Amino acid sequence: MKKRFFIILGVIILLFGLGYISYLYWPKEDIVVDPNISEEYKQTLKDELVSYQDELAQNPGNSDLFIKIGKLEHKLGQLSSAERNLKQAIKIENPENLYLAYFYLGELYEDMGKYDEADDMLRISTQINPNTDVGFLALIDLYKKHYPGKADELDNIYRAASDFTKSPEVWASYARFLEDRREYRDAWIYWGEVLNAEPDNAQAKEAVVRLKEILGIAN
């Protein structure tokens, strides 16, 4: 009786294993979505895509071409193909554009609804090139839209972004975030940073004056 039980159990495990292997290796249908763009613009993108694909055939180790192709495929709604090409760019590990490959893959994963994967890719992009604000701004936007309950983590991202990038756009966004949290003194400081970098920034001028009144700071 016991021997029969183990035989049956073995068969079940074998069938489960075969099914799992089939799932892993069975060709999966590519994810393609409607890009919701005009037919004219779609054709322009397709023509550009063919041009880059022809270039890539002549230079298959060019990571920049993989990135350009991945970006175009993303715009055309060819999401799975875009993912493959951006991952190929990452495999090449060109230090000049590696952060961009991770950045565009992060944006792609966000559009695919894979928010945790998007978070990972965008963070890697900021780690590779912390002095450029594009990765940080995309990461900030991701958290605002999809992680509304993680305001403290968003604050950490803002702090890192403002320290590394010295970007007025980051400072302005952080200042608005701090105002929403009623951290008026810190918001005033960051609006001041924006104004120092961009003396003609009307929004920063207005914010500095308004927050000085709230804080009771004399001119």
Q: How is this structure best described in words?
A:
With 219 residues, the protein is an all-alpha fold. Helix content is 77%, strand content 0%. The chain contains 11 helices and no strands. It has helices spanning 2-25, 39-58, 63-75, 79-92, 98-111, 115-128, 133-146, 151-165, 168-180, 184-197, 202-215. Helix 6 (115-128) runs antiparallel to helix 7 (133-146). The termini are far apart.
Describe the structure in brief.
The protein is mainly α and 219 residues long. It contains eleven helices and no strands.
Quickly list its features:
219 residues, mainly alpha, 77% helix, elongated
Q: SSE layout and pairings?
A:
Elements (H helix, E strand, L loop, with lengths): L1 H24 L13 H20 L4 H13 L3 H14 L5 H14 L3 H14 L4 H14 L4 H15 L2 H13 L3 H14 L4 H14 L4
Residue share in β-strands: under 5%
Residue runs with pLDDT of under 50 for 5 or more positions: 17-27
Total of helices: 11
Largest sheet: none
Terminus-to-terminus distance? 92 Å
Shape: elongated
The residue-averaged pLDDT reads 90
Report the strand count.
Answer: 0
Secondary-structure content class: mainly alpha
Percent range for helical residues? over 70%
Helices and strands, in order, run as HHHHHHHHHHH
Rg over CA atoms: 24 Å
